[in-house]
Fold this sequence. Notes:
The structure is a single chain. By secondary structure, the protein is mostly helical. The protein is built from three helices and no strands. The protein has helices spanning about 5, 10-20, 30-50.
Amino acid sequence: MTADTAAPTASARNLARTGTGGPEEDSNWLEHVLGWTLVVVVAMFVTQVGWF
């Protein structure tokens, strides 16, 4: 590993400081609802296909 690869780039530092770059950082409830909806849809798919 060289010194160039060990140091984070300016864009990586900006991304870490500003967040994920998603629509809004204050939309935690929306992320939770969409996440749980995805979990339920995947669970329904898995049970219908018979993998579980």
